[in-house]
Amino acid sequence: MCDTCGCSTEGGAVLRKPGQSDYHLHVNEHEHAHGEHHSHEHGDHHHEGSGRKVLLEQDVLQKNNLLAERNRGYFEARGIFALNLLSSPGSGKTSLLEKIIPALQQRFPVAVIEGDQQTTNDADRIQALGVPVIQINTGSGCHLDALMVNRAMKELEMQNNSLLCIENVGNLVCPALFDLGEALKVVIISVTEGDDKPLKYPTIFHEADICILNKIDLLPYVEFDAAKCRENAMRVNHHLEWFELSATTGEGLAALQEWLEAKMAQH
Amino acid sequence: MHEMSIALSIVEAVEERARQEGAGWISEIELLVGKLAGIEPESLKFCFSAAAAGTLAARARLAIEEPEGVGECGECGTTFPVNFYYAECPACRSLKVKILSGEEFLIQSMTIEEEEE
């Protein structure tokens, strides 16, 4: 049950806006009504083999993929360049955005969609930068999907030709499967994690276009081999663009910033 | 646990089609889940029983075929089995491997039964 309005949306995602405690919007599809059709009792006698086979040959994620393509079309039409930021919790996605957005904002408009299970903490931090932001609370959900982004982007006041950063739920597994309509997937790891992370969670590194190694200011204090990590990431996906930086000290940020600016100019 | 939302997508897709076909209920669903698709078949089966409760697919059996991963070397063209995305060509050690199969994730077909009296 929704803790704000009391309606029953078990497991459904909710949109929130920082500083607007009365604003919340449920990401519902047309109700998928289970239980409407229990009227017929089947009894226990299955007529196995009497059935008719129907071919579907349809992608399991077709619905999400189609909606993601609609999102992509919307972004294209408005000249919006969308990034899907993926990482484990605590690798510094929000800190990186806090650091890089003020610089990027000098060049083009930026907007942010924040994904977390609960709280508007991350959206509050982004709001402080003065960019449009909306929070998706997924509740029990472990990833964002195209429907949530579709709803959120309509609530977000985005300018044309913006950079849209979609910060996914901190999770290196599930978000890999769900296309949101982004132009690029960005995976972020930090040196406080293991340098074998790309090998342990290969799917997300395989799907990503860019890999950012964050917290390099901590390298002297941890057992983390940055070169080894890069090699592992490249084993999984040799197309990866690789950046090493520290969102805290700002080291290495300029390279990412230039790269993003070039991408924005091209697209 | 993305398997739960995936199970719900499967139920939704087959139910929609089953209604169009005028089915009474669904007795079997055939899935193709490649070994590299990032889906755990056991976890999916577990979630499916919960996702399908109260739907036309409530008593459906999930038949899951799991195609092996096959890669092709981008340097020398050798094809070979791959279990992970970080495959290395066994012939020339190149890491430029293109995945040919193993990423499938499809609802192949379903078996529908007539309404029972």
Ends apart, CA distance between termini of chain A: 42 Å
Our Rg estimate of chain A from Cα atoms comes to 21 Å
Structural class of chain B: alpha+beta
Q: H/E order of the elements of chain A?
A: EEEHEHEHEHEEHHEHEH
* Residue share in β-strands of chain B: 25-35%
Protein traits:
heterodimer; A: 267 residues; alpha/beta; Rossmann fold; 9-stranded mixed sheet; 10 strands; globular; B: 117 residues; alpha+beta; hypothetical protein PF0899 fold; 2 domains; 3-stranded mixed sheet; 3-stranded antiparallel sheet; 2 helices; 6 strands; 26% helix; 32% strand; elongated
Report on this structure.
Chain A has eight helices and ten strands. Chain A is of the alpha/beta class and 267 residues long. In chain A, strands 2-1-6-5-7-4-8-9-10 form a nine-stranded mixed β-sheet, sandwiched between helices. In chain A, helix 1 packs parallel to helix 4. Chain A is globular and about 65 Å long. With 117 residues, chain B is of the alpha+beta class. Chain B has two domains: 1-67 and 102-117, 2-Layer Sandwich (hypothetical protein PF0899 fold); 68-101. Chain B has helices spanning 2-20, 41-52, and strands spanning 25-33, 61-65, 69-73, 79-82, 97-101, 105-113. Chain B has a three-stranded mixed β-sheet. A three-stranded antiparallel β-sheet of chain B has the order 4-3-5, with no helix packed on it. In chain B, helix 2 links the parallel strand 1 and strand 2 (61-65). In chain B, 40% of the residues are buried. The model of chain B has no long low-confidence stretch (mean pLDDT 91). Strand 3 of chain A pairs antiparallel with strand 6 of chain B.
Brief write-up:
Chain A is 30% helix and 23% strand. Chain A has 267 residues and is of the alpha/beta class.
Question: How are the elements arranged and paired?
Answer:
The complex is a heterodimer of chains A (267) and B (117).
Chain A: E1 13-17, E2 20-27, E3 52-59, H1 62-77, E4 81-87, H2 93-104, E5 110-116, H3 121-127, E6 133-137, H4 146-155, E7 163-167, E8 184-190, H5 197-200, H6 202-207, E9 210-214, H7 226-236, E10 241-244, H8 253-266
Parallel strand pairs in A: 4-7, 4-8, 5-6, 5-7, 8-9, 9-10
Antiparallel strand pairs in A: 1-2, 1-6
Chain B: H1 2-20, E1 25-33, H2 41-52, E2 61-65, E3 69-73, E4 79-82, E5 97-101, E6 105-113
Parallel strand pairs in B: 1-2
Antiparallel strand pairs in B: 1-6, 3-4, 3-5
Helix pairs in contact in B: 1-2
